[in-house]
């Protein structure tokens, strides 16, 4: 972003209480099933969330450090501050469901069950990386864990996710696709085309907008004529809901409702209101935010907030909370050590993924190679 | 062998592949109820139903991307984009997604997708509906781009494209839909990445694809009769990968080349071919490689102006004669009486 001066205003997204809108047409049909009674928060679930959130937190901090040490390259977008949203959403998916994400996807990859070692090795561009060193931070992919890609082009994953849902419907399967995106994505053409097609064809897909109030430095209010993004769904007769993304339990429950709806062939738009505690990417100093604003943000940090809740509700002792932190820090450190020790890809593999079906005259020319063997003029027989 | 139009060959091949493989299905604007803008899909909705023949909203980015996503899960979508001009609306999905997914994720997901789309000018459709922009896709690693010029090749290349596990842009041409030719009855796919010598000769190599390969063959046959010229004709068939070896080997034999293209000359496919011949047959050339291409203007509506902007048979004949004169052959001039 070049025009930071215009974007110093405090993010204007309100912390609206979770509420639900069902577009008129959809409302006349059966509403998505909702749990009969507010489920009593399960202590084990909270502890698991805390452990998962701590893994993401420490993994991302480790990645940021490696990035600033120039051990990893490219762009590096982190899930710091979004941990509650990530664990809540991912806990609602079955193993057989699919996930498409944008480029801010490390935490999602971990929560889909991808080994942190392989996720970190991808950041390092090594052979053990989850995308074999071909994707980097923005393009993690693992078919076995049904993470069908982080995508670097804003909005690019939406038509793909819609098509994956079409394939599920085509085969009559009971699977669902979740497609996450940032708030800025709501303004791109692919958002409109994908939501329209998904609703039109009744595809099993949940579109999730992580609304952290900022594009890179442009606020939602400056980018979206309707800053309450979930309301956009009404244009497609699609059910939608907005949820507080700082509470993993609320996110989980909202995601469960959204997924249940999608599994019945009613696609869903879920807006998760979150906070971005750092810059857009590791290299962004976020000068468009004031020091007061950044200090103010700290109170929304979901990781210490959940720790405090666990202690206050006597689910864990302070020592137990601390031990979880230490264990997950150790996992992040181990991932980093694994990645550093992983081999660089062999240059001989450069053309291994040109095509899935081998083809005649496929180019395997390195930059300095001639197209044809250079023959001395004297040797040319005429 | 059966004599069919290019259109009928495409239709029959789509139908046969849908009968052969349950994973093959069609998507596109107006392909079902309306039976396709150019009627390639006529009757298929009635035969296969809405599950296999999907009419889409006017949303090229959305439905092309959806086809890519479906292909990632193992279906084999054949997308019709009404004309190649409209593929620009889907450029991000084709270039940044279809072409990237296999390599960018380290070979973990294939994209067995076919995008059928016609190019072509000469129908007085004006600047935005008369372009030949297959080059944009042929530029991109990860894509395969094929361009048949005959009904037989339309069948053989479409079979190959549908059975291929990579994204294939299948270029059709408005002016070719009604052309007729022998079509083999058996199901032998063409080999993607291979050019075809459609006429052997020794005097000059004439190179084209799609409509211009059709014109090249006709011009060569006419000149054989009228001038006794022995021109070798190469139909590229595949724009990516490009069969450079066939081009270079031919020029080593003929020592001269004329390249025909329906797109603009500057940075065009002809430029790539001329550079290839320069790299591979520099010492064999007896004249510069000549290109015949569209005038560098947005296509005008006026029939007079449109005709002036598009390559004609006469342009091709002139380019051949001038090249052969540069070589040193003495020839009759175009327009001279042949008595």
Task: Name the descriptors.
heterodimer; A: 382 residues; alpha/beta; Rossmann fold; 7-stranded mixed β-sheet; 7 strands; 10% strand; disordered N terminus; B: 339 residues; 2 domains; 14 strands; globular
Write the layout of secondary structure elements.
The complex is a heterodimer of chains A (382) and B (339).
Chain A: E1 19-22, H1 24-28, H2 43-68, H3 83-91, E2 98-101, H4 106-111, H5 116-123, E3 147-150, H6 157-171, E4 177-182, H7 189-201, E5 205-211, H8 220-223, E6 239-244, H9 248-263, E7 268-273, H10 291-297, H11 302-312, H12 318-341
Parallel strand pairs in A: 2-3, 2-4, 4-5, 5-7, 6-7
Antiparallel strand pairs in A: 1-6
Helix pairs in contact in A: 2-3, 2-11, 2-12, 3-9, 5-12, 6-7
Chain B: E1 2-5, H1 6-20, E2 24-28, H2 44-48, E3 53-55, H3 60-72, E4 76-80, H4 91-98, H5 101-104, E5 114-119, H6 134-138, E6 144-146, H7 151-163, E7 168-173, E8 180-183, E9 196-199, E10 204-208, H8 211-227, E11 231-235, E12 238-240, H9 244-254, E13 257-264, H10 269-281, E14 290-294, H11 303-309, H12 313-327
Parallel strand pairs in B: 2-3, 2-4, 4-5, 5-7, 6-7, 10-11, 10-13, 13-14
Antiparallel strand pairs in B: 1-8, 6-12, 9-11
Helix pairs in contact in B: 1-7, 3-4, 9-10
